[in-house]
Design a protein that fits this description.
This protein is α/β, with parallel strands linked by helices. Helices cover 37% and strands 17% of the residues. The strands form 4 sheets. The protein has an 8-stranded mixed sheet with strand order 1-4-3-2-5-6-7-12, with helices on both faces. Helix 1 packs across helix 6, helix 3 packs parallel to helix 4 and helix 5 packs across helix 7.
C-alpha cells in the first residue's frame, strides 16, 4: 500500500473510501469528496492520486478477502467499480464482492453508497424511469444488478446497514471509456466518420454527465437524511433523439451529420468477431424505444445543484474521444 499523508500523518475528518477509484465516476467522485473531507482512500488495482492527501490502496477487488482491509476505518464506502462487461463474469464476481463489502461496512460501522445503473428495471419502464420503476430485468446482466440491489436492501432492513443506491443513466462527458456516447458518436465524428447507434436513431435518450454523477454522489454520501433509499443521479431532464444529438455535436464541434444504425439482427453475427457486441445484444431494448431517466426527485431535494448542459457535456466528450 502507498499512502499520501500530511506531515503529521493525521487527517482532520473521517475516512471516506472509494472502491473502484480509477473509473470514470470514481475519479470525479474523488474530486468532489475533497469538499467534505481531507481523508480519502482510493482503492483499485493501480490507484492514482486525485487530491494531494489521497491514500492509495492497491487491491484486486475481484478478491473478496481483500475488501475488509481496504475499507478498515472508513466512515463511508463508495462502490464505483466496474467489472469486466460480460454476463458470465458479472454473475461470478459481483455477488461475492457485494456480500464482502456489506459485511465489511457493517463490521467497520461504515455507511455504503452503491453507484448503480438501470439494467434491473423492466423493459417497459425505459421510456420513463423513476426510482419506483418496477425491478423486473430481461437481461442476464440486469438480473445480476437486481440481485445486488436486493442484497443492499436486505442488509438495510435486516442488519441495520446505512446505505444509498445512487443510480445513473448512460454516461457522457469527460469519460474516456465505458461511454456509448463517446465510443459511438463523438469518437466516430471526430475521426471524420458517421456516428453509429443501435436499433433506432429516432428515439429520445438522455445521459448522465460523469462530473455531475461524482458531485451528486459525494453530496448524497455526506447528507445524513439521504440514506435508506434509492436516488436517481442528476441528469438532463430534456431527452432528444439520437439524430438530434448528432446534429448538435456537428453544430458545436464539426463532423458529419447522419447516423449509421446497427440493427439488432446484426449483433449476434458481429459478436462472433467483436465479443463486446455479443454482450451488448441483450441490452438493445434500451435503444429501440425512448429512454428517459427521470432525476426530478434529486432536483427537488437539492435545487441548488446545477446539471452540466448538453453543450458543455458534448465539448467534454469531444476532448476525450
Amino acid at each position: 500500500m502507498t499512502t499520501n499523508t500530511d506531515n503529521q500523518g493525521q487527517y482532520a475528518q473521517p475516512l471516506q473510501t472509494i472502491l473502484g477509484a480509477g473509473g470514470p465516476v470514481g475519479v470525479e467522485l474523488a474530486k468532489a469528496i475533497v469538499q467534505y473531507t481531507d481523508n480519502i482512500r482510493l482503492v483499485s488495482r493501480n490507484p492514482k492520486a486525485v487530491n494531494p492527501t489521497d491514500q492509495l490502496w492497491p487491491a484486486d477487488l475481484s478478491q473478496p478477502s481483500l475488501i475488509r482491509e481496504a475499507v478498515r476505518g472508513s466512515a463511508i464506502v463508495y462502490v464505483a467499480i466496474g467489472f469486466a462487461y460480460t454476463a458470465k463474469n458479472w454473475a461470478k464476481v459481483w455477488p461475492p464482492f457485494m456480500e464482502a463489502t456489506i459485511d465489511a461496512c457493517l463490521a467497520e460501522g461504515a455507511k455504503l453508497v452503491f453507484i448503480d445503473n438501470v439494467y434491473m428495471y423492466e423493459p417497459k419502464a425505459v421510456p420513463h424511469m423513476t426510482e419506483s420503476s418496477p425491478i423486473a430485468p430481461k437481461s442476464k446482466k440486469g438480473k445480476v444488478r437486481a440481485e445486488l440491489v436486493h442484497m443492499v436492501q436486505t442488509a438495510m432492513k435486516a442488519r441495520g446497514l446505512e446505505a444509498i443506491i445512487a443510480r445513473s443513466a448512460d454516461f457522457y462527458g469527460p469519460v474516456p471509456q465505458t461511454s456509448v456516447f463517446v465510443e459511438s458518436i463523438t469518437k466516430n465524428m471526430k475521426a471524420g466518420k458517421k456516428a453509429q447507434w443501435f436499433a433506432s436513431a429516432d428515439k429520445r435518450h438522455n445521459f448522465t454527465n460523469t462530473v455531475d454523477a461524482g458531485r451528486a454522489t459525494a453530496l448524497l454520501g455526506n447528507t445524513p437524511d439521504a440514506y435508506g433509499r434509492t436516488w436517481h443521479l442528476p441528469t438532463d431532464p430534456d431527452p432528444i433523439t439520437v439524430n438530434e444529438w448528432v446534429n448538435l455535436v456537428a453544430k458545436l464541434q464539426g463532423g458529419k451529420t447522419g447516423v449509421q444504425v446497427l440493427p439488432g439482427w446484426m449483433f449476434p453475427i458481429l459478436g462472433l468477431f467483436i465479443p463486446i457486441l455479443a454482450e451488448f445484444h441483450e441490452m438493445l431494448y434500451q435503444y429501440d424505444q425512448d429512454y428517459f431517466f427521470d432525476s426530478s426527485v434529486f432536483a427537488k431535494r437539492f435545487p441548488e445543484f446545477k446539471i452540466t448542459s448538453k453543450e458543455e457535456s458534448i465539448k467534454q466528450s469531444w476532448v476525450v474521444a
